[in-house]
Amino acid sequence: MRARIHITLKNGVLDPQGKAIGNALAGLGFNGVEDVRQGKYLELQLADQDRDAAERQLRRMCEQLLANTVIESYAIELDGTPVA
């Protein structure tokens, strides 16, 4: 089972790296980019075939290690389907 995890800074959290990317894009002539927010993307191949167990395990991974839940949000997909 393939899992995809998108981790982004929560709204209201300053994103200096996103700002630097936005400035660099403007400097290269890419006009019209109003805001850039950067994040992390992870793909995991899971041996577990039980979807509910995999979802619980992925949430624990995010809460304990992959995301700093104070300032970051995460979204999980299992086999291309978003997990609510």
Give a quick precis of the structure.
The chain is α+β, with helices and mostly antiparallel strands and 84 residues long. Helices cover 33% and strands 29% of the residues.
Structure write-up:
This protein has 84 residues and is α+β, with helices and mostly antiparallel strands. The protein has a single domain (2-82), classed as Mth169, Chain: A (2-Layer Sandwich), CATH 3.30.1280.10. Helices cover 33% and strands 29% of the residues. The protein has two helices and four strands; from the N terminus they run βαβαββ. Strands 2-1-3-4 form a four-stranded antiparallel beta sheet, with helices on one face. Strand 3 and strand 4 (81-82) form a beta hairpin. The longest helix has 16 residues, at 51-66. The model has no long low-confidence stretch (mean pLDDT 95).
Spell out the blueprint of helices and strands.
Layout (H helix, E strand, L loop, with lengths): L1 E8 L6 H12 L11 E7 L5 H16 L5 E7 L2 E2 L2
Antiparallel strand pairs: 1-2, 1-3, 3-4
For the biggest β-sheet, the strand order reads 2-1-3-4
Please trace the helix and strand order, writing H or E for each element.
Answer: EHEHEE
Strand % is: 25-35%
Number of helices: 2
Ends: how far apart? 17 Å
Tell me the name of the CATH homologous superfamily.
Phosphoribosylformylglycinamidine synthase subunit PurS
SS-derived structural category = alpha+beta
Tally of strands: 4
Largest sheet: number of strands, sense, barrel closure: 4 strands, antiparallel
Give the CATH level 1 class.
Answer: Alpha Beta
CATH topology: Mth169, Chain: A
Instruction: Tell me the CATH architecture.
Output: 2-Layer Sandwich
Radius of gyration: 16 Å
- So what's the overall shape? elongated
The count of domains is 1
Are there runs of 5+ residues with pLDDT below 50, and where? none
Q: What is the residue-mean pLDDT, rounded to a whole number? A: 95
